[in-house]
Structure formats: structure tokens, C-alpha cells
Specification:
Radius of gyration: 18 Å
CATH superfamily: Vaccinia Virus protein VP39
Number of helices: 10
CATH topology: Rossmann fold
CATH class: Alpha Beta
Shape: globular
Strand content: 15-25%
Strand order of the largest sheet: 5-4-3-6-7-9-8-10
Distance between the termini: 26 Å
Helix content: 40-55%
Structural class: alpha/beta
Number of domains: 1
CATH architecture: 3-Layer(aba) Sandwich
Largest sheet: 8 strands, mixed
């Protein structure tokens, strides 16, 4: 934990030093994205619905059994623990700033298909779906108890056409990709170890289109995530990468020079 804290302090300082304002970005595509998405401060009604429900869920004292296949499992295949739902929601759900950005990204690009790695209580999923209500969204979650909570989230918020796949990502991903011809938007969360993240990226990129975009959560959280992010953004198939500190976003647009941006946000 101490090493991660030191890493995050160093990465935050590096981000603040290297990040640019929108006035120093010489890419019309990125400048437009900053102006119309990152700087959009409209108070969309969907925010209040999602955040109000998250607040109520965060007060729950119900104890559930959780299963984790990701970084917290360490060298084991998975770990199982019993935890109170409220603190779990606070810890694993998207923060307001990042959730709202997911909403605005999807509202701007309007993806027809969305794949999410890591549902948790469904708060991040709700932001994703609310931004593109006509999309087909498949979300994968390793923990059946959390998937059940997420189902309640979607029902309460009246969000339709969300398909939860329960189980290990390795097991579910092949069948998911058989169903989706193109991955318009992918949100990578739920497993923040280097090898799985890079592996999932390389599998998903095979179904990326000209207008697809992939979002990676907490790219500076750990050395594994920073290594994975650096590997992914340097991939020759990626045309534009945006480092927003909490999120990393990559695009696959053709006919433009490869560019990497660290954006002050």
C-alpha cells in the first residue's frame, strides 16, 4: 500500500507537470473532444438519478459474499470475502467526476455497442448506458452477489437492454465477442493486473472500428496499470491516446499521425 501511495504521488506530480490545457492542443479532433465533452458542465438530469441511488445504496449494512479474480487475489485464482454492501459501493463504484465523464463520452459518440469489464454494483454501468440509451451493453462481473445488486440498480433506474455475464472474464469474453460484430466502446475495469489488461486489449482491438474508443480506469493506480497503459498507448494500431490521469482513452482513427496527449482535466 505504501509503494502504491508513493507511486500515485509521483504520477500525480508528473501528470500536473506534463498535462496541457486545451489551448495547447493542435489536434482538431482532440480540441473538439475537450470543448464538447471534457468541458461540458451541463447538469444532466441523469446525474441526479444515478448519484441519488448510489448515495442510498452506500448506506446499506447488508453483508454479501464477494469473489475477486483481479489484483486483490494476488497469486491465487480468486479470493472470497464477506463485506458490507455500503462500504463496498463507495470503494468500487465510479466517483462522480469519472462517472459523469463516461456519460458525456457516450452521449457525444453515441456507441451502438458497449462492453464493460467489471460491473460491481452497476453505478458505472448506469452512467455508460444513460449516455447511450439505445446501445446494446454487455457487462461482465465475476461476483454473482454484486451482479445481483447491479440488476437491482438497473431496475430501479429503469435502464433497459443491459446484459450481465457472471463469471471469469476469460470464460465469458469469447462468447461475448461472438455476439458483437464491432466493439464501439469498451470500458476496462475489474482486473488491473498487467498481463490480463494487455491481453484483453489485444483481443478486443480485433473488433474495433474506425470510430471505436476504449477507456481504461485508474491508469496510474499501480505499477501494473502504468505499465499496461504505456504498452497500450504505444501500440501501432492506436492513433490517439488521452491521459486524463484517472482515465486513459485510446482511439483508432486512420489517416492521422499518431499522437499522445496528457490533458489537464
Amino acid at each position: 500500500m505504501k509503494n502504491n501511495f508513493v507511486l500515485q504521488v509521483k504520477s500525480r506530480l508528473a501528470y500536473q507537470t506534463n498535462s496541457r490545457s486545451r489551448f495547447k492542443v493542435h489536434s482538431p479532433f482532440v480540441f473538439d473532444l475537450i470543448e464538447k465533452v471534457l468541458k461540458d458542465d451541463a447538469d444532466y438530469p441523469q446525474y441526479a438519478k444515478i448519484e441519488g441511488y448510489k448515495k442510498s445504496l452506500s448506506k446499506s449494512s447488508v453483508v454479501i459474499e464477494t469473489v475477486d479474480f483481479g489484483e486483490d487475489a494476488g497469486n491465487r485464482d480468486y479470493i472470497s470475502t464477506f463485506e458490507k454492501l455500503g462500504p463496498l459501493v463507495k470503494e468500487r463504484s465510479q466517483r462522480k467526476k469519472q462517472g459523469r465523464l463516461l456519460f458525456r463520452l457516450n452521449r457525444f459518440f453515441n456507441p451502438k455497442t458497449i462492453l464493460e469489464f467489471g460491473t460491481a454494483a452497476g453505478i458505472g454501468t448506469a452512467y455508460l448506458k444513460s449516455g447511450a440509451p439505445e446501445s446494446k451493453l454487455i457487462t461482465m462481473e465475476g461476483c454473482a452477489s454484486l451482479a445481483d445488486v447491479a440488476s437491482g440498480t438497473f431496475e430501479t433506474l429503469n435502464l433497459q437492454d443491459i446484459d450481465i455475464r457472471i463469471g471469469h472474464f476469460e470464460v465469458n469474453l469469447p462468447s461475448v465477442l461472438e455476439e458483437l460484430k464491432v466493439l464501439d466502446m469498451v470500458f476496462f475495469d475489474g482486473n488491473r493486473r498487467y498481463e490480463p489488461i494487455v491481453k484483453y486489449f489485444n483481443i478486443c482491438i480485433e473488433k474495433a472500428g474506425e470510430n471505436s474508443y476504449f477507456v481504461f480506469n485508474r491508469i496510474h493506480r499501480s505499477r501494473d496499470m502504468e505499465r499496461a497503459w504505456n504498452k497500450i498507448k504505444s501500440d501501432s494500431r492506436v492513433s490517439i491516446s488521452l491521459d486524463l490521469y484517472n482515465f486513459g482513452i485510446v482511439f483508432f482513427r486512420t489517416g492521422i499521425p499518431k499522437q499522445d496527449f496528457v490533458i489537464r482535466y
